[in-house]
Amino acid sequence: MPSQIPDRIIWKTNAYEILGFENADNETRLFDPKMYGLSPRMMHTACYRGFYCTYTIVDDTLYLDTLCVNDENGHYPPIHGIDAVPVRDI
Predict the structure, then answer these.
(1) Distance in angstroms (rounded) separating the CA atoms of residues 10 and 54
(2) Does some domain include residue 7?
(3) Residues 8-20: pLDDT tens digits?
């Protein structure tokens, strides 16, 4: 099985890969595409879960910066006023 594309966090000028996290609850979970009506499906063998994210930390707050998702229904609604932009698979 190929390595999976990890989520990343950008903090200051450094990029970090998220390999996992512990003690997550409803207050600390990361982005969940299903909460926005998306149904991710596998993009390719390096992205079985069908999406990956890049987060940034600004003033001690974590923000979703970039979302790449392959929705099984081709449904890409705006999220918090941000429209989807088509891109090519990596």
Answers:
(1) 7
(2) yes
(3) 999 999 999 988 7
